[in-house]
Amino acid sequence: MKISNKLIFSASLLLSTAISGTALAAVCEQDVRVLAQPRESLTMLEDYKDEFEAKYGASFSIDYLNENDRRAKSRAEASTVGRYNVYYIDEANVALFAEKGWVKPLLDYYPAEYDFDDFDPGRKKVGSYKGKTYFAPIQGGGDFLYYRKDILEAAGVEVPTTLEELKAAVKKLHDPDNGIYGIALRGQRGSGSNVWRWMTYFKGFGGEWYDGDKPVFNSAAAIKATETYLELFKYSPPGTKTGGWTEVTEAFNSGQVALIIESSPLAGQTEDASKSVVAGKVGYAPPPSPLTGGGYGHGLAIGAKANSDEASAKCAGTFIAWATSKEQEIKRVEKGIFGDINRLSVFASDEFAAKYGDTIAKALDATAPKTAINFWPHADWPDLGDYWGIILEELIVGTRTDIQEALNELEEHANKLAAKRK
């Protein structure tokens, strides 16, 4: 009789854990269903299904959708039939899912031995709403100023530490006739695209989304942020006017751009010579003052409807803890999945130092104090942010020109949202 490798692995793992005295009681009675977007760290988990089943009594399956489709389906799913035990959610919709009761507070069901406190504080913060934690981070970060050391050195330009220095450097380094643009920015509409980058200027200039219940979008800070963003866009590659994170990072990694301010997980790609022609030529610094860093995070949350009983919720919480554990993150380091590392102990590990050296780890420490929650932490944020993203894209491509009028329209929309909540 032929015995499958899966059975051999499961039996040996159960035997070894039993001998060591660490075998865990079956926590899961049914397989865990997960709705997510594709990430290497999640597809990697599927290689370890036997490990999870041996420890906890059941397996799991993950359905993948691209980011926009995942957001739409998870909202529709969680609010109606709720078939998924675990939802992949992000900082933009934590408030909505929590306020609607579509997900459960995570720490009520997160096993203590998996040490939730080990996660980066900023990523824990963006996964929380009104003092309760709703997801364990699968990815996240703040912002770096990425700069081409070779280009700045050749031009005699110091690393910018202020926005005025950044503007001067961008203008001096801009040389499109020789294939170099001063900076690359996101133009593509969306709360997580052009608005995400614009927000660092808005908050840096002292902008606030609301004063109590009153929207304050057509403020001096909002006008100055928009003017500055449009001014810098003159030095961004043409393809970025309707481009997002992908277009910006590909332009930088292909050697076309001198400076960008982007999310810190990009550093893993930038230093990967198989993906980047600028590997070894890049420096990392905090965003120039007064800009804030864009704190963000994506993670795994416990679905409320599919886990209506305590046993199911405990199983979902255990799966999330296992999937985001230190052991899984060390495997990500070994495989070069830099963007999905979130634990302080892993950043400080020998494995991380061996893979990435200490330059990036030091830059993460330096940028942490500037990392902030820039978006409006409210259930209406996706609606509001996406609405502004459309208007901002129109300003960038030139189909609109009146900044004050554009912000007045945003404020009118915000007032309509506020009226619905009363």
Structural description of this entry:
The protein is α/β, with parallel strands linked by helices and 422 residues long. The protein has 2 domains: 197 residues, Periplasmic binding protein-like II (D-Maltodextrin-Binding Protein, domain 2); 205 residues, D-Maltodextrin-Binding Protein, domain 2 (3-Layer(aba) Sandwich), CATH 3.40.190. The protein contains 19 helices and 16 strands. The strands form 5 sheets. Strands 1, 2, 3, 4, 7 and 15 form a 6-stranded mixed beta sheet that branches. Strands 9-12-8-13 form a 4-stranded mixed beta sheet. A two-stranded antiparallel sheet has the order 5-6. It starts with a helix and ends with a helix. The N terminus is likely disordered.
CA-CA gap between termini? 69 Å
Q: Fill in the CATH topology of the largest domain.
A: D-Maltodextrin-Binding Protein, domain 2
Q: What value does the Rg take, in angstroms? A: 23 Å
Number of domains: 2
Unreliable parts: 1-23
Approximately how much beta-strand content do the residues carry? Answer: 5-15%
Kindly summarize this structure in a few lines.
The chain has 422 residues and is an alpha/beta fold. It has 19 helices and 16 strands. It has helices spanning 5-20, 40-45, 49-56, 67-79, 94-99, 121-126, 149-155, 163-173, 194-204, 220-233, 245-253, 266-270, 310-323, 326-335, 344-347, 350-356, 359-367, 381-397, 403-421, and strands at 32-36, 60-64, 86-90, 103-104, 128-129, 132-133, 136-141, 143-148, 181-183, 210-211, 214-215, 257-263, 282-285, 293-294, 296-303, 371-372.
